[in-house]
Amino acid sequence: MQNDPMGAVDAMLRSGRVADATATVARLAAAGHGGALFQQALWQLQGHPLPRDLAAARLALRQAADCGHGEARLVEITLAANGTGAAADWPAAMRLLAAANAAGDPHARYLHGLLSAMAIDGDGHPTTPLLVEPLTDDRSVRRVRGALSVAECTHIANAASDLLAPAVVVDPRTGRHVPHPIRTSDAGVLSPLREDPVIRAINVRIAALSDTQVAQGEALTVLRYRPGQQFRLHADVLPQVRNQRVATVLVYLNDGFGGGETTFPDHGLTIRPKAGDAIIFDNVDAQGRPLATARHAGEPVRSGVKWLATRWIRARPFDVWTGPETA
Ligand SMILES: O=C(O)CCC(=O)C(=O)O
Ligand SMILES: [Fe+2]
């Protein structure tokens, strides 16, 4: 136990001694223990058991990284790129990534490889315009073929794979979780902690494709549909929110499965998923009123597994930490 003070902290948490655990971590962090600094940063990012303090988390990560804590270094790179706890600083994130790569970190090397294959400038913005093809006469549904590479699609699916959970809603009568009536797929949300520079650059690309700012996007959500699973006919607009979902970008992460088409019945439109293709559609009209014709469905998957990433885009910048319901 003496050699592994963080093991003792785990034991305290398991036995419900939360105050002891936070006090021990605070003491170790003040003494410059990398693992404790990293733990403190994670708690400050999650907002429990410590209050959320994104700027303090960044400081703790910096100190942990200086102690040679490899995971802290990777999280610091992620947050520097996506602007958590400080303004987004792509060049700084790239310098930190290059240093981690030079120090032999295999994950940094992998991320660096994916980023090197992207056509992006020194701020992580796409340099080559992608062709946006209208799929409806009113141009409210559009497609960009090959918006993402196969390697990028695989990276997104892998980044969410340990987060995937069945869709549930709370039954107002019993208070129990019951299966979601509309969507039966599993989902995982790539919060800023998971929005590494590769995913950040993809979110910036999605913003460019949809002519929006990256800050308007909700966290990228990955959906996985197994045979029989579907997203029944629905609209993406939310009831009673001030900051409405004005547009949606879907990216198909794979293909080769049976079924799983995206349909817009009011447009008579059926889209066959192809890995890397992005579908962009408006959920509201020019006055900001919900567009009835934006109703759409993910048809049941008949065979194989369908993977998709969704970015719901708000009218104004959206704080991903406060969650979709409170915005
Ligand atoms: O799976 C699909 O094709 C549709 C997904 C969808 O409607 C959504 O993510 O909002
Ligand atoms: Fe949808």
TrEMBL record:
<keyword id="KW-0847">Vitamin C</keyword>
<dbReference type="GO" id="GO:0051213">
    <property type="term" value="F:dioxygenase activity"/>
</dbReference>
<feature type="domain" description="Fe2OG dioxygenase">
    <location>
        <begin position="216"/>
        <end position="315"/>
    </location>
</feature>
<keyword id="KW-0408">Iron</keyword>
<protein>
    <recommendedName>
        <fullName>Fe2OG dioxygenase domain-containing protein</fullName>
    </recommendedName>
</protein>
<dbReference type="InterPro" id="IPR044862">
    <property type="entry name" value="Pro_4_hyd_alph_FE2OG_OXY"/>
</dbReference>
<keyword id="KW-0479">Metal-binding</keyword>
<dbReference type="Pfam" id="PF13640">
    <property type="entry name" value="2OG-FeII_Oxy_3"/>
</dbReference>
<dbReference type="InterPro" id="IPR005123">
    <property type="entry name" value="Oxoglu/Fe-dep_dioxygenase_dom"/>
</dbReference>
<keyword id="KW-0325">Glycoprotein</keyword>
<keyword id="KW-0223">Dioxygenase</keyword>
<keyword id="KW-0256">Endoplasmic reticulum</keyword>
<dbReference type="InterPro" id="IPR011990">
    <property type="entry name" value="TPR-like_helical_dom_sf"/>
</dbReference>
<keyword id="KW-0560">Oxidoreductase</keyword>
<dbReference type="GO" id="GO:0016705">
    <property type="term" value="F:oxidoreductase activity, acting on paired donors, with incorporation or reduction of molecular oxygen"/>
</dbReference>
<dbReference type="InterPro" id="IPR045054">
    <property type="entry name" value="P4HA-like"/>
</dbReference>
<dbReference type="GO" id="GO:0031418">
    <property type="term" value="F:L-ascorbic acid binding"/>
</dbReference>
<dbReference type="GO" id="GO:0005506">
    <property type="term" value="F:iron ion binding"/>
</dbReference>
<dbReference type="InterPro" id="IPR006620">
    <property type="entry name" value="Pro_4_hyd_alph"/>
</dbReference>
